[in-house]
Amino acid sequence: MSIFCIALPMGGMRRRDITTFININKPKQKQLQDLVMSFVLRFTYEVAPVFTLMEAVVLERMRHIVGWKDGDGIFSPGGAISNLYGVLTARHYACPDIKQKGLLGKKQLVLFTSEQSHFSILRAASILGIGTDNLVKISCDHRGKMKVAELEEKIIAAKIGGKLPFFVNATCGTTILGAFDPVNDIADVCERHKVWLHVDGAWGGSVLMSKKHRHLLNGIERANSLTWNPHKLLGVPLQCSAFLLREKGIMQQSNEMHADYLFQKDKNYEVIYDTGDKTIQCGRHNDIFKFWLMWRAKGEKGFEAHINRMFELGNYLRELIRKREGFKFVLEKGECTNVCFWYVPLRIREMDDDERKKSELHQATRCIKAMMMENGSLMVGYQPLGEHPNFFRVVISNAAVMEKDLDFLVEEIDRLGRTL
């Protein structure tokens, strides 16, 4: 631990001091921060014993919060890689000899996800040789939730076609609308057809920390694997993504290559703490330290208060928009802290032609966004969704956000919109 005595601020190692230090951006101190956060390349316990144990303890607690008594997991470079682990592990579960013999001669593997899921599921199909044409996208209802009846129909159709359905991804907290797929209903389908259920909770998984909001993930304990990104809704500094498994051992089986020059089995400690052979990496960035520090500083009650506060701010913004003339919701009652809306200038409101109105609204959103950037007043993302024209998407996760900031946001968009 001598390196931390050099790098950390003088005057003691209080948890708040350390947490503040991890988040600073002053150039000289930033160099020391980088030294603390990246000096370890972790693949065996003897290289990084403290951080290895930190990771094991935190992952165990996260699995307990999910509702699993046992299991496995790893911290990965981000949600896209965690989702890749989900598909990789499910592929091994469906075809245990695929690591040695490859895809040749196997039934065509098919995976399923909603049309509003993250693109990383599609990319995983490409990376793992399954093919993007063999990812079946399931329609969503007006709230952005997967249609479970259609999912089962498509699984049955794949079976009839001689294919092997092996993986279903349920999204809990979609990127745009913040929708939560109905995990319990999807789990029923997966159990009937013996298909691996992965939950992409990269965005919404952190609501598990809140007694008030964890109902959004009802049934999560029935999933086989879960992606959960503390660097999103919990506000942990980038990068911090966990891949969690209900079953112990399968991740090791999926990835191990038995490199005995690194992962000897006759060491003088319990080699289950050597994590390098169960990952697609070897060395890994030290992501656990900042999360462990924040958890120690805030506690689970602090995390719960943070989640509840973010939801309160989301509702506050919705109420502002509801009361303001010229604003229109894409989805009035969202499930997460995503707030999606248009500003509709008066000239567009007065149009009779719906197609022209849609086209003009698309351009109006782009123009307001451009004016924000030119003025340097706001940074708010926009995007289309299906047939919808461009709309604004505000996602609240930062503990520093206040009601006055949201007041300014609405007033500024209104001010700029009235100039169009």
SSE layout and pairing:
Blueprint: H1 2-7, H2 15-22, H3 27-38, H4 49-66, E1 72-76, H5 79-94, H6 98-101, E2 109-114, H7 120-127, E3 135-138, H8 148-160, E4 164-171, H9 183-193, E5 196-201, E6 225-228, E7 241-245, H10 250-255, H11 288-323, E8 327-329, E9 338-343, H12 346-349, H13 354-375, E10 381-385, E11 388-395, H14 403-417
Description:
Its cofactor is pyridoxal 5'-phosphate. One of its GO terms (biological process) is gamma-aminobutyric acid biosynthetic process. Keywords: Decarboxylase, Lyase, Pyridoxal phosphate. This protein has 14 helices and eleven strands. It is α/β, with parallel strands linked by helices. A seven-stranded mixed sheet has the order 1-7-6-5-4-2-3, sandwiched between helices. Strands 8-9-11-10 form a four-stranded antiparallel sheet. It is globular and about 75 Å long.
